[in-house]
Hints:
Distance between the termini: 34 Å
Order of helices and strands: EHEHHHHEHEEEEEEEEHE
Number of helices: 7
Strand content: 15-25%
Shape: globular
Largest sheet: 5 strands, antiparallel
Helix content: 10-25%
Oligomer: single chain
Amino acid sequence: MLEVDPKGGGFKRNGENPLDCDLLVLDETSMVDVLLMHALLKAVPQSAALLLVGDVDQLPSVGPGQILADIITSGAVPVVRLTEVFRQAAQSRIITSAHRINEGSIPDLGKPEGDCDFYFVQADDPETAVPRIIELVKTRIPQRFGLDPIRDIQVLCPMNRGGVGARSLNIELQAALNPAGERKVERFGWTFAPGDKVMQIENDYDKEVYNGDISYIGDVDPEAGELTASFEGRAVTYGFGELDTLVPAYAATIHKSQGSEYPTVVIPVMIQHYPML
């Protein structure tokens, strides 16, 4: 919307060339950093109203600052908080657990009666947690809910590093869910094989694939030195030398998952993740 200026840097929309609007509604404001908000405010006409919408309890922006939280804390602008849990949401233990955490209370971690959307599985150390996560993803959740372990279940980790981090769990889950056969390629520390779930980790405007996009490998052709991945049904070809932009995506960090939806998530919450909890 601000019209990136690739030659000169910055944005074409600014104080001299403002946006044409009377009211600007900015959603997902918790994800906006200081630099982008500064550029946006310069481009909003003096006569326009600005409505910021967002969840201050989500992760702050990847870039510097925590804009939404600081604006609310400043007391300088009118703030409306949505606090009512509506009837449909009150049936969800995900929703009620999140509200209890935000209020500083421990959520109900007991075993639910009947089907539920929130389950707590005890694991006190990485040695216990890793095989338990694999069992949940490979066997227990698919059997109980009829879900595909690769396409329908996403492991989300607070961090990349550590024995229960996204890097380590990707190796374990890949071996359990889609062990590589003859047609495979090893590049940049990862193995890629047909059937693997992978994530694009940087924007590629030529291929029209973007940071955080999930795809599934259709084929690996060692003779041609190429790999084909399917992004929502669209085939994209990578030369083996380009595979530094793909990583296995059986497990991903919570930061990378922002803005995405999954039928089912498994989230390890371990003491080793304490900097990010």
